Amino acid sequence: MSETLSTGKASAPVPPPTRPPSRHLALARLRDLALVPAIIAVAIVGWIISPVFLSTDNIVNVLQSMSEIAILVLAQTIVLITGKMDLSLESTFGLAPGIAAWLVIDPALTRGLGLGLLPDAWAVPVVLLVGALVGAFNGLLIVRFGLNGFIVTLGMLIILRGLLTGISGGQTFFALPGSMTYLGSTSWFGIPASIWVSLLLFAVGIVVLGHTRAGRALYAIGGNADAARAAGIRTDRVLWIALIVASVLAALAGLLISGRLAAVPAAQGDGAIFQVFAAAVIGGVSLNGGKGSVFGAFTGVLLLFMIINVLTLAGVPAQWTNFLNGAVILVALVVSRITGGKAQT
Amino acid sequence: MSETLSTGKASAPVPPPTRPPSRHLALARLRDLALVPAIIAVAIVGWIISPVFLSTDNIVNVLQSMSEIAILVLAQTIVLITGKMDLSLESTFGLAPGIAAWLVIDPALTRGLGLGLLPDAWAVPVVLLVGALVGAFNGLLIVRFGLNGFIVTLGMLIILRGLLTGISGGQTFFALPGSMTYLGSTSWFGIPASIWVSLLLFAVGIVVLGHTRAGRALYAIGGNADAARAAGIRTDRVLWIALIVASVLAALAGLLISGRLAAVPAAQGDGAIFQVFAAAVIGGVSLNGGKGSVFGAFTGVLLLFMIINVLTLAGVPAQWTNFLNGAVILVALVVSRITGGKAQT
Amino acid sequence: MSATPHRPGGGPVGEDRPVVEAVDITKRFGSTLALSGAGIMVRPGETHALVGRNGAGKSTLVSILTGLQAADGGAVAFDGRPAPPLADRDAWRQRVACVYQKSTIIPTLTVAENLFLNRHARSRSGLIRWSSLRREAEQLLAAWSVEVDVRQPASTLSVEQRQFVEIARALSFGARFIILDEPTAQLDAAGIHRLFTRIRDLRAHGVTFLFISHHLQEIYELCDRVTVFRDARHIVTAPVAELSRQALVAAMTGEDVTMPEAGRRPLTSDAPVLLSVRDLVTSSGAELSMEARAGEVVGIAGGGGSGKVEVAEAMVGLARPAGGTVTLAGRVLRPGSVPDALAAGVGLVPQDRHREGLVPSLSIAENVTMTVPDRVGRYGLISPARRDALARDTIADLTIKAAGPQVPVSELSGGNQQKVVMGRALANDPQLLVLITPTAGVDVRSKQTLLGVVEDVRRRGAAVLVISDELDDLRNCDRVLVMFQGRVVGEMAHGWSDNDLVAAMEGVDLHHV
Amino acid sequence: AGCGDRSGDATGSGGGKPLIGVDYPRSDTDFWNSYIKYVPQSADELGVELKTTNSQNDIANLISNAQTFMSQGVKGVVMAPQDTAAIAPTLSQLESRKIPVVTIDTRPDSGTVFMVVRADNRAYGTKACQFLGTKLGGRGKVVMLQGGLDSINGRDRTEAFNECMGKEFPGIKVFGEATDWKADVAASKLQTRFASDPDIKGVYMQSSFALSGTLQILKQRGLQVPPTDPKHVFVVSNDGIPEELKNIGGGLIDATVSQPADLYARYGLEYAKAAIEGKTFQPGPTEHGSTIIQVREGLLEDQLPAPLVTLDGAPIGGQPTVKFDDPSLWGRNA
Ligand SMILES: Nc1ncnc2c1ncn2[C@@H]1O[C@H](COP(=O)(O)OP(=O)(O)OP(=O)(O)O)[C@@H](O)[C@H]1O
Ligand SMILES: Nc1ncnc2c1ncn2[C@@H]1O[C@H](COP(=O)(O)OP(=O)(O)OP(=O)(O)O)[C@@H](O)[C@H]1O
Ligand SMILES: [Mg+2]
Ligand SMILES: [Mg+2]
């Protein structure tokens, strides 16, 4: 009720220096770290349930199994900060490696599944190119034609998934060329490369979004697009780039998982978008734009996957895992509401 | 310091109106009818592809197969007009009849699947009650605790689906009592009751949202919640009621489809929410609240199902149906953008 | 004084080239012609005023002069050279800085970042140096004695602080030409004073200003020349000293609006007490006790932060008070309940029409009847015919310029929107009319209409509360309560002098020191 | 995978019972839920200790679950990869740790497993085709309610059904409808088909998910009549859940293929246990009435019987069928 009071000309009868000057800053930093206690708590609970939880082996397992979704979360975070959303990322995740496989793999090896049109070396460029094209098409409809982002990308989600089903006939592409499987299956310094890649991308994301003009432009657009435009930010161009970068990241994530599976199932990424949104929002990214950090998003996805791992280790009956998963998301939401301290937006 | 103007009643005559007085009304009506040409076009195309398309049998078939989703669209429309959204409707759609079946059906008949706690007559009330409880819980989190509606209902989507899997062990509830199957399987005047029910609900929706103070309150809240509150509308209460009504409608829709299938599969409604959103938005309902009509939403869902039916009759190869479906949604969106005439919000 | 589609201006042009010259500018928004062959010429070193009624096209011209929008026709030149292409924002910003009418503060970002948006201090590696950015921001704000922590999000600023951040940012570009679009609308007297001192300072250093305001006295106080727009056209440009207030208003409205003061009927001393407020305390600590009699118009004045709006909002149920009672015609209002206040006969014009006054997507008819569903139908059903009839009455009574009751409010001009808000407040024939800053951002003409309504309402025997810091709003009150820092510090009877009231609002009591 | 020797030490398995990890493929179909129910029962009977996970029909989950099994130090893994191509890297990882794998229901496209326990999905399609073709006398129209296009089992059934129809009953026209394993999609596609071709005489459902929706449509159209009536529509289902057996008894449907959910659970665990104990197997008949075949080098497959269940148990096309109330059917004992 009191929120109706506070804006307007006479905001407070008593002048405002009632709060310590640095509180907001502290709060902003705190919000970045909001999930750290929860992560520690889950780690302890997990360790109690099964000492295996904190073994190097299991930690690597958690990090690897989250690495691809984490990159999707990073992509979604970039888009959310600009005040848009991109549901189609989950389909790009499957379609981009799917198209590359389709064009590259030899039909002789796979009972006629591929076209074998391009040499193997083209596979990875094609993956990224498909990502860029999808992002550019989204940009065309959203930025250029002013269509609503939610519904454009919902349409794209369905259409891109349909396209993958169409070219594959619903089957799984396998016998992928080595260039496609390398990144998802190799290890560097004893740790799977996909972990390195996802951590690196998050580090880059933290620097770009936190410490470059381009990154700050995303926040400015999400906070108030008109004001950003008035400040000389080329809002349209930045939105295009954000959408394209997000789609390319999704394509890259798809490449990683295809490498890990050494195959591209037609259903790759199906339903992942729910998890992606949940992780981003639990990590403090606002659906209304302008708020949230890459580090927060990372903690969000880490927390989710740790909990899933604990539930698996605890041997929760199969039919109740989904329920517990949902419950965890809801609880995380309520908790982040309490630590966040005000109505979420 | 002050201006030397004295006050007094302005006597300037009202300037001549610059545009015909009914234009706005006409425009608003036009927007309601925006999809009618498209519907006619699809009907003609369908008839060319297969003369069966316009047979009574097939029209009844289209109306019946869309009836349950149409009620979900109605429910979502109510929530969207208030400026919120409810993703969890798709899970309520399965959970409500699932819980009723669980409580009512005799474990002896179904090898231990039900509890047989309640007499058959309770089944329908339980369905509706579950719907109301889900809506009330959403209301608690969204209206009372001020949590973001998208993410609350996303969490609820997952949790409610998990709950249904939990109680059913993932199995299908069979042997539903007659009270649960009646509405979904009977016919009145030679037309399936579910068609009557959905048409009736839409008619009620048109009257309530268009011509009652409660209905207009939904638009006012969606258009500007603060202004609605300042105008004496009990915004919180109206939001609660809207969420509860929507969930009850979803439960009712679930009852209809369970009646039609004479069973409650654990995956009932899975993925339906995408279709529901697409239908509502194509039908002109704004995701930002305050705009759209029940009739428009009806034309949206009708168009979608007609197209699906045409694709089926045309015998489109199975692997391309999803793609075509998505393409149709996207095209419908672009077309509604052109007829709508300005940037969608 | 007809429109001049060609080069505007009068008087001798100096040897200097004009800082900016816009010629024959036309701009259309859909069916609205916002500018039609309008122009302006601003000379170096002068402070040029631009006035006109709401919707005259002033802000549209500003957005064209600052390169935010392209004109449909016409030309803009700076220092005699054609304006840079729209995409080259940096070139525009070297030529002109601007405080826009619509806030360009980004609430989610820190104050410091707002000040240096898109021109952050960077190290050689291209990364932002947050510490030096913060230092620069602190220095910048210190010059304006705005005391805020620059690290806090801009959403925590008061409206006034926010306005100063905008101003400080605009002036920090080092541009030689600065446009201020209604910079004073959100400031109290002290703030305005600070701003004006600074403008005079800069002017002494040769900075040119284009200044837009609906407060005509500010034009006379500050400006050298004035340009008047009306109905999207340029009407006249003249030195301020040569244009009387009468003539200025006539140019703005196209008619002579001075009217005799309506016969003020003195309040009968035996009029019953209608409203009684006892020890009302708001959640932010402002307090008020008062009474108002039938037919009485009571003003509540106060500067920014005086608590006048809070007490008013608590009174009508928009906010839940911390304590106290409000009694209207013997009925005790339920605290924090707007529906109860409406039922008791309160009519309200809230402070900010965009936030609380209107549902822009709905029609005039729906907005006007929103508080009185009972009067336009029965059993919860609404009769469109009765609704439109009621709305048509309101449109006629308040001379709302609109094609009909079905027009969405979003398509009305600002002044007309405010009239719709007034219409909504009057729809339930209120016993108590509460007007919170009812003429904010409304042009002189519409002001008259709105204040004229007050006179009608008091004649019907209702009580009226006018909460404002605009003297014109308060002039017709039988008495004015003055609030300062959450307390009533004085009461002034009808006929107060401007100086006394302003002093009281500033917390200075001229008579009882 | 740096620490492969962990699985060698004795932690993890308790009390001398071998520790076996079982991954359930999904928990939203009746058939797999029966399987989930049978697994712990069989584990008790065989005296093995269980760790279970559920990959929810998502290959990425299955991979992560396999990792978890390795962390937990299981000695053998039973899984049912619904994606037979994408499982290869996981199999080689398990192999490198010397953990034997038994796959249920599906045969990996590549990689080594100790044993594949499955019924032949292509045989399901062929059996359904034989039944419908024989009953319709080689003429008429049938609708095939396919599963999801992305399911190998669904595709096998579709291909075999189409192949058999084309070869043996060219007079029958088949409408294939993709349903995504969804009951409501199946119902409306079937209804659309009946609208366009009211003279449909047979329905083949690739899974019991479409069962009650199909029955409702037949009922609504007044086609629920005994087989002797010329209006009868022959319905073949698949899975062998109790509801289907009941409906065969009630004359509502005509046949189903009984997938051996109980045998899947039992022999999956038995082969895993045998592998841990170091036993080996050779192609040839087994003592439980099935045949082990060698599919390719290093890949043995135990093909469990999946009988066609009918009302009378009479042979169809020369192949034996099982009567619906035969006590050997798992659906009788569920
Ligand atoms: N983006 C827009 N789209 C449509 N119409 C617009 C837009 N911007 C301005 N207008 C219309 O153009 C006209 C001129 O508006 P403008 O904002 O320039 O007026 P103004 O003189 O600044 O008024 P005020 O004194 O209220 O600020 C108005 O009728 C307004 O409604
Ligand atoms: N954004 C808009 N879209 C469509 N029509 C508009 C828009 N803004 C204004 N109009 C219409 O343009 C006409 C002129 O508006 P304008 O703002 O110039 O009115 P005005 O005479 O200045 O009114 P006021 O005295 O209230 O300022 C009005 O009929 C108004 O309804
Ligand atoms: Mg105007
Ligand atoms: Mg303006």
UniProtKB/TrEMBL annotation, chains A, B:
A single GO cellular-component term on record: plasma membrane
GO terms for MF: transmembrane transporter activity
Localization per record: Cell membrane
Transmembrane segments: 33-53, 59-81, 93-110, 122-143, 150-176, 188-209, 238-259, 271-287, 294-316, 322-340
Domain of life: Bacteria
Pfam families named among the record's database cross-references: BPD_transp_2 (PF02653)
InterPro entries assigned to the protein according to its UniProt record, in alphabetical order: ABC_transp_permease (IPR001851)
Presence of the UniProt keyword NAD in the record: no
Keyword line: Cell membrane, Membrane, Sugar transport, Transmembrane, Transmembrane helix, Transport
Record keyword Protein biosynthesis present: no
Segments for region (Disordered): 1-21
Topology of this chain in the membrane: Multi-pass membrane protein
Protein name according to UniProt: Simple sugar transport system permease protein
UniProtKB/TrEMBL annotation, chain C:
Signal peptide feature range: none
Gene3D superfamilies named in the record: P-loop containing nucleotide triphosphate hydrolases (3.40.50.300)
Domain spans labelled ABC transporter: 20-256, 268-510
SUPFAM superfamilies, alphabetized: P-loop containing nucleoside triphosphate hydrolases
CDD domains with a match to the protein in the record: ABC_Carb_Monos_I, ABC_Carb_Monos_II
PROSITE patterns reported for this sequence: ABC_TRANSPORTER_1 (PS00211), ABC_TRANSPORTER_2 (PS50893)
GO molecular function (one): ATP hydrolysis activity
Domain of life of the source: Bacteria
Keywords: ATP-binding, Nucleotide-binding, Repeat, Transport
Name of the protein this chain belongs to: Monosaccharide ABC transporter ATP-binding protein, CUT2 family (TC 3.A.1.2.-)
